[in-house]
Structures are given as C-alpha cells and as structure tokens.
Amino acid sequence: MEIARAVLAGEHGPARDIVLVNTAAALVTAGLVATFLEGMAVAVVSIDSGAAQGEVEELRIQAWPGLKPQPVTLLRCHEEPCPV
Fold first, then answer.
1. Phi/psi at 76 (5° precision)
2. String of DSSP letters for the chain
3. Taking Cα atoms as reference points, which of 77, 79, 74, 76 lies closest to residue 7?
4. Do residues 43 and 51 lie in contact, with contact meaning Cβ atoms separated by under 8 Å?
5. What is the model's pTM?
6. Does 80 or 64 have the greater pLDDT score?
7. How far is CA 22 from CA 19, 36, 61, in A?
8. What does the alpha-carbon distance between residue 74 and residue 2 come to, in Å, rounded to a whole number?
9. 27: buried, middle or exposed (CB in 10 Å: 19+, 13-18, 0-12)?
C-alpha cells in the first residue's frame, strides 16, 4: 500500500515506471489511446497532475466512507545499498 501511495504522490523510481508501463498498455488495450507512447503521456500527466490520486481517493470514499486517509511517507535512501 505504501508503494502505491508513494507512486500516486509523485515519487519517481522503478515502481512508478512499472505503473506507467502497465497503465499505457491498459489504455492501448482498452482503445482509449492509439499508441503506447500516447498511453505513457496520459499516465504521466494523470499521476503528476494528481488526477490519479484523486480518483483513488474518490474510490476509497465510495468503498469505505468511514476510513480516513493515512499520510504518505516518502522514503529516500542516501546510501547504497538502501537499508530499507
């Protein structure tokens, strides 16, 4: 859950890359975009603009109206390998 929150909050890294690739492929498969690159662009804008996070929050509100959102803690490693 923390990885998903971090990606939706705009953290860059391998998890975000996987989300972007999967989203682009899904958009092409669904016929919502014509090319994979167009799908990548839509995915990037959706995450970076906060639209994706807003949609997930709306889904959370509808599915679990009493559940309060938890703050996102972004982990940043400043040493290699990352001990976390």
1. -125, 125
2. -HHHHHHHTT--SHHHHHHHHHHHHHHHHTTSSSSHHHHHHHHHHHHHTTHHHHHHHHHHHHH-TTPPPPPP------SSS---
3. 74
4. no
5. 0.70
6. 64
7. 5, 10, 25
8. 9
9. buried
Tens-place pLDDT, residues 23-71: 999 999 999 999 999 999 999 999 999 999 988 888 888 887 777 766 6
For the record, the structure tokens of 6 come out as 């971090």
Instruction: Round to whole Å and give the CA distance between 9 and 75.
Output: 12
* CA atoms 84, 70, 19, 64: torsion sign: positive
